[in-house]
Design a protein that fits this description.
The protein is mainly alpha-helical and 287 residues long. It is built from 13 helices and 2 strands; from the N terminus they run αααααββαααααααα. The chain has helices spanning 27-32, 37-48, 52-60, 68-87, 90-105, 122-142, 149-165, 177-187, 195-205, 214-229, 233-238, 245-262, 265-279; strands at residues 108-110, 116-118. Strands 1-2 form a two-stranded antiparallel ribbon. Helix 2 packs antiparallel against helix 6 and helix 6 (122-142) packs antiparallel against helix 7 (149-165). The chain starts with 26 loop residues before the first helix and ends in an 8-residue tail after the last helix.
Length: 287
């Protein structure tokens, strides 16, 4: 049987207890329902990895993440966690948040000088949260989705509720695009692409794919490359990649083309089937 620690009641189920933490009228539902958010998820990983303690803590607690079965099982858990918090009922979202916080309580990372730290330190959790939110709003804006500046401000504000689920102090999370930009400026001096971040970049550009999944083996690298190209110039420079206005324009054009491609039902559903096959490859081995 599939191992699915995060489950939620479909928003279309008439028997649902409530509309969850956000609801169908929220900007959050409108943004997260967009298929182009798959690119935002990958972009967020690249951004989050620029905090050395975030990426070290991740890799040190996931020794088998380079193995196809484990990598895709982890992706499924992450995807289901995000979906549960976004679209699940209030009880389902809060249960998922408690589970993640409990897991993080026991995890630590180690710096190169031997200093140990908790992976749920407030600075690390806030950076992970802001990396995800910044990626969602940037991809939504540049891919041509119909969101106004006020909509994106509302999304950032709504996402403070998601931040609380993983243990972030709501008051510390940005409540607008301006506050999100100010946070990025403040934390940037503490960011850089350490060896582990570059390892993670290589891993996603050449991802471990379960045997027989040719669609993902061929299709994922260009999507990952597109996600990387959408990073802010300062982030791409940290990874050692030249960038400029033309690179930004090309990335935006690529996003709009990807948005059109993802709108093709047959293409998107085929990609989803490939992803689900990869995620399910280790079901028989799951605890």
């Amino acid at each position: 049987m599939p191992y699915t620690p995060y489950t939620y009641t479909s928003p279309d189920d008439p028997g649902r207890e409530d509309d969850g933490l956000f609801g169908p009228e929220s900007v959050t539902w409108r943004v997260m329902n967009s298929r182009i958010m798959w690119v935002a998820v990958i972009r967020a990983l690249y951004l989050q990895a620029l905090h050395p303690r975030v990426i070290r803590g991740t890799l040190q607690n996931a020794a088998t993440i380079t193995q196809p079965v484990d990598a895709w099982a982890r992706l499924r858990r992450t995807r289901m966690f995000i979906e549960t918090c976004t679209f699940g009922t209030i009880a389902e979202a809060e249960r998922a948040g408690r589970r993640v916080r409990k897991i993080h309580e026991s995890l630590t990372g180690t710096d190169p000088d031997g200093t140990r730290y908790r992976v749920d330190e407030p600075e690390l959790l806030l950076w992970v949260h802001c990396g995800e939110v910044a990626s969602c709003v940037d991809i939504a804006r540049r891919s041509g989705l119909p969101f106004s500046a006020a909509d994106l401000d509302a999304f950032v504000d709504e996402q403070r509720t998601s931040a609380e689920l993983i243990g972030v102090d709501r008051a510390a999370a940005p409540a607008s695009m301006a506050e999100l930009d100010a946070y990025d400026e403040e934390i940037r001096p503490r960011l850089y692409a350490c060896d582990e971040a570059k390892q993670a970049l290589r891993l996603t550009l050449h991802p471990p794919v379960p045997d027989g999944n040719r669609v993902l083996k061929l299709g994922l690298p260009p999507v990952s490359a597109l996600a990387f190209s959408t990073l802010p110039r300062w982030a791409r420079r940290m990874y050692g990649t030249a960038s400029g206005p033309l690179s930004d324009m090309a990335a935006t054009a690529g996003l709009r083309a990807a948005h059109l491609a993802f709108s093709q039902q047959w293409l998107f559903l085929g990609a989803l089937r490939a992803i689900h096959r990869a995620e399910s490859a280790g079901d028989s081995q799951a605890p």
